[in-house]
Write a structure and sequence with these properties.
By secondary structure, the protein is an alpha/beta fold. It is built from nine helices and ten strands. 40% of the residues lie in helices and 20% in strands. Strand 9 and strand 10 form a beta hairpin. Helix 3 packs parallel to helix 4, helix 7 packs antiparallel against helix 8 and helix 8 crosses helix 9. It starts with a helix and ends with a helix.
Length: 286
């Protein structure tokens, strides 16, 4: 499983990409294509906004936060080996360069998007050297942005507070594994991965936007899939490209279609097919 050269050439040329979900066989030695994309284009920051959708009721109201995840190292560095039979070691790699890069990105994102605070999520009380380095880089980045409130909090405490009152948080920045877990938790607050957009920002100007839910092979070809996550990711892409007017218009149309139960897909409690939902979005755009 490799990334097609045409796709690599296109992203290198245009500095932008939009992708659907990709499946990786579990425990069979295959490299994740998602991981390969991040490494190929040095997509160091995963940005995932989580905002409550008006008219779609969940146990949480007024959620409006953003998780920013370091995307290139940590436990996902792929450094594993067998020490002796029955004992496997996995290396967590944290570097100053990558930590400082994502920390400063989080603060720049907060300033650019009118956000008031950035929270560094860590476990430096246990992993004092690795998470300690990440946290130190966040502290130093915070000094450059005095207009943004800075907090630091243990991962387990954040998870506890998140399910109690997610309104406490604004922008959260964290190492790779923590971000993978916490961003999915946050998606659950607003209705799931099917309504959550995602973008990956690269150091050399490249950016790839994606839906992060599974491939759902069980409903393939049945016109049942919910396209919202990919559609909202495309809206994020348009805003990133400076086409925010178009992105906001499509985003608003998607939210209007979700607000109407008759045009929601089954995963959101409705009965509409993918085609019917899409038709509704198109009508609201017009």
């Amino acid at each position: 499983m490799v990334i097609p050269q045409k796709a690599i050439d296109s992203v290198n040329k245009n500095k932008i990409g939009l992708k659907g979900p990709l499946a990786t066989p579990i425990g069979k030695g295959h490299q994740s294509l998602n991981l390969a994309l991040r490494k190929t284009f040095n997509l160091y920051a995963n940005v995932r906004p989580c905002r409550s959708i008006e008219g779609y009721k969940t146990p949480y109201d007024d959620v409006d936060l953003v998780t920013i995840r370091e995307n290139t190292e940590g436990e996902y560095s792929g450094i594993e080996h067998v020490i002796v039979d029955g004992v496997v070691q996995s290396i967590k790699l944290i570097t100053e360069v990558a930590s400082r890069r994502v920390a400063e990105f989080a603060f720049r994102y907060a300033v650019a998007n009118g956000r008031k605070s950035v929270t560094a999520v860590h476990k430096a009380n246990i992993m004092r050297m690795s998470d300690g380095l990440f946290l130190q880089c966040c502290r130093e980045a915070a000094e450059k942005f005095p207009e943004v409130q800075f907090d630091e909090m243990y991962l387990d405490t954040v998870c506890l507070h998140m399910v109690q009152d997610p309104k406490k948080y604004d922008v959260l920045v964290m190492p790779n594994l923590y971000g993978d877990i916490l961003s999915d938790l946050c998606a659950g607050l607003i209705g799931g991965l099917g309504v959550t957009p995602s973008g990956n920002i690269g150091e050399n100007g490249a950016a790839i936007f994606e839906s992060v839910h599974g491939t759902a092979p069980d409903i393939a070809g049945q016109d049942k899939a919910n396209p919202t996550a990919l559609l909202l990711s495309a809206c994020m892409m348009l805003k990133h490209m400076g086409l925010g007017t178009y992105g906001s218009k499509i985003e608003k149309a998607a939210f209007e279609a979700i607000k109407n139960k008759e045009t929601r897909t089954a995963d959101l409690g409705g009965k509409a097919t993918c085609s019917q939902f899409t038709d509704a979005v198109c009508r609201y755009v017009d």
